[in-house]
Automatic annotation (TrEMBL):
InterPro entries: G3P_DH_NAD-dep, G3P_DH_NAD-dep_N, NAD(P)-bd_dom_sf
Keyword Membrane: no
Protein name per UniProt: Glycerol-3-phosphate dehydrogenase [NAD(+)]
Pfam families registered for this protein in UniProt: NAD_Gly3P_dh_N (PF01210)
GO BP annotation list: glycerol-3-phosphate catabolic process
Taxonomic lineage from the root: Eukaryota, Viridiplantae, Chlorophyta, core chlorophytes, Chlorophyceae
Keywords, sorted A to Z: NAD
Domain Glycerol-3-phosphate dehydrogenase NAD-dependent N-terminal: 2-64
Species name: Tetrabaena socialis
One Gene Ontology term of the molecular function aspect: NAD binding
Gene Ontology CC: cytosol
Gene3D superfamilies: NAD(P)-binding Rossmann-like Domain
Length: 86
């Protein structure tokens, strides 16, 4: 992974281990050694693909990276909010 790389998890769910649950973003942070924001929301991929009004939240630690991800994902039919809590 290149220095300065940013990651965002689009995966719903978590890994269940004998020690307890682990968020996918935690796995990314540990395995890649970089911060990982999370995009989540009560939306359906096909609704977004059909440009139906949907919303999601990006949970983050790094505000600058979150703003970049918001610019990448937000569309007139797909509203993105930011929350400083990955």
């Amino acid at each position: 992974v290149k220095p300065g790389a940013a990651a965002i998890s689009l995966i719903k769910g978590m890994r269940v281990r004998p020690e307890g649950p682990q968020l996918i973003s935690q796995m990314v942070r540990r395995n890649l050694g970089i911060d990982c924001a999370v995009l989540m929301g009560a939306n359906i991929a096909t609704d977004i693909a059909h440009e139906e009004l949907s919303e999601a939240v990006i949970g983050f630690d790094n505000h600058d990276e979150a703003m970049l991800f918001k610019k990448l994902f937000q569309r007139p039919y797909f509203r993105i909010s930011l929350l400083p809590d990955p």
